[in-house]
Amino acid sequence: MLFIPLVAHGGWLVALVGAFGIALLLAGTGRAGLARFLGMNRRLRWFYLSIVLMFGWFTPGRELLPLLGALSPTAEGMMTGAGRVLVLALVVGAVVWLLERSSRQELIAGLLWLTRPLAWLGFPRERFAVRLTLVLETVPQVQPMVAEARQAGESQGSKDWPSRARSLFERVIERAESAPCEPIEIEPGRPPGIRDWGVLVLMFTPLLVLLLWEILRV
After folding, report:
1. What is the pLDDT of residues 155-208, one digit of tens each?
2. How many CB atoms lie within 10 A of CB 73?
């Protein structure tokens, strides 16, 4: 969770160092992790493009293509848009690494530990942890069904998007109803030890130092 605000509020140097760290972590997940990372970013490509367009053409600054006049994107806008896209890609990489390296029980235990302070406010920590974990596990199972529905529509030349969406929704509901009910044991797990905190310090100290250096340099 600390990784996201560090790379989001840092400059290009912080983002590049974060990208190097994420690349090392993803390399340790093997082909499955890399394929999952590339697939998730491919599904976000239009969202990424919209970010670049919004920042590139609606941010004041120096014209990148002076021949286009008012239709030219700005250099500052394109740099800002590219930076936002890089941050989102890094967040996707961090999520993929977490899912590839953590079991269901470890994810639930981690979420319970992170939300422990909210227990004083009556926040349903157990329900939140279980539901979020189940959602993260279910999304990859639904994605092939979405791809099949898209390919079927393209092969048939169908433009009836509402009917295709309704059919896909019905398939998802049918699969959910036929899925076996598996009991989930919620164990609090052990709190982070000295070794865990040491790894976090080693990972985040370079990013924090670079962020402070960029802030003080301005």
Report:
1. 555 556 677 677 777 777 777 777 777 777 666 666 667 777 777 777 777 777
2. 20
